[in-house]
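Re-run with default settings, no changes from the original entry. Doing this only to confirm the output is reproducible before filing.
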Amino acid sequence: MRCVIARFPFDLFKSEVEQAMKGVKPEPVTGESVIIGRRHYPVKQVGEVITRQDRRDFSAQEVTRALSGLGFTCRAMPAPVAPEPAEQAWPTTVV
């Protein structure tokens, strides 16, 4: 599949991406992620490996679009969990 990442065209194939990521230890996922094999990788890490560019040169959205087009399962950044409301510290005495 032909795609553009950081203004450069790439011809990517699912098997080539899987081969490139073989043996690469996944970094901790803090944002968007992709499942390759049985591992969850940060999208930016995969983009850096397959394009050989610095991850600051492209967006996660560019790589997510390309990987989704190849058939990989991509996950968005998890929504922040809202803290549960604290119990009131008021005394509950009955008069």
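The chain is about 30% helix and 20% strand. The chain has one domain: 2-75.
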